[in-house]
Amino acid sequence: MNNSLTEPPSRKAFNSSKEENTIREIFYRHWEKMKDQMLWARDEINRWRQKSTADINTYADQQIRILNDYCARQRHAFEESRRANIDIAAAYAHHATQQSGLFDQLREACSKLEFQMAKLEIIKSSIDYIRVITVEDHTKNNYNNSIIKQSTNADDNLPKNISSSPNSTTASSDKVK
User: Fold this and answer.
1) 63: phi then psi, degrees, rounded to nearest 5
2) 171: β partners
3) Separation between Cα atoms, residue 175 and residue 153, nearest integer Å
4) Pair 56, 45: CB distance under 8 Å
């Protein structure tokens, strides 16, 4: 992963004045804070990723257990139906001359049987995501929100009998004294 904060700025330059080195030291401390914030944010993102992955894995494991239990019950019902119909077919075979029409009906009925497994459906679910908001984005959003707030407050300060529409020059019919 590319990390532009791995290379620290120089704290001192031997050919520089005390004042220049003081400024270098200030910026070095700023760099340390930025690096610490970046490492913390990256750790938070990784913790979120691990928790989200663990939650998804837990849910998937639960659904697989439900599916396996259902399949076992379906297999049991399938085997019971299979054995019962084989037993009936054996009885018809024993009395082949008298039961041929019944065997044809049994074969037709067995062909029409449907054994289905569970179906899957996609459910909509809300997942919380982490989003990195840069200082520029944060400042821009705050600026836009303050413009909206100022616009709303300006409308609140208008006299009640004057329209705030820019194309409207009408006043209410109340007489002004």
Assistant:
1) -65, -35
2) 162
3) 26
4) no
Amino acid (1-letter code) at residue 142: N
pTM confidence score: 0.58
| Distances in whole angstroms, Cα of residue 154 to Cα of each of 10, 70, 115, 157, 159 | 51, 64, 69, 5, 11
Cβ atoms 9, 31 nearer than 8 A: yes
Q: Minimal CA–CA distance to 127: which of 75, 39, 59, 70?
A: 59
Compute the 3-state secondary structure of the chain and give helix, strand, coil in percent, each to the nearest 5: 65, 0, 35
pLDDT tens figures, 84-103: 999 999 888 887 666 678 88
Maximum CA pair distance of the chain? Answer: 117
DSSP letter for 127, please.
-
Length of the chain: 177
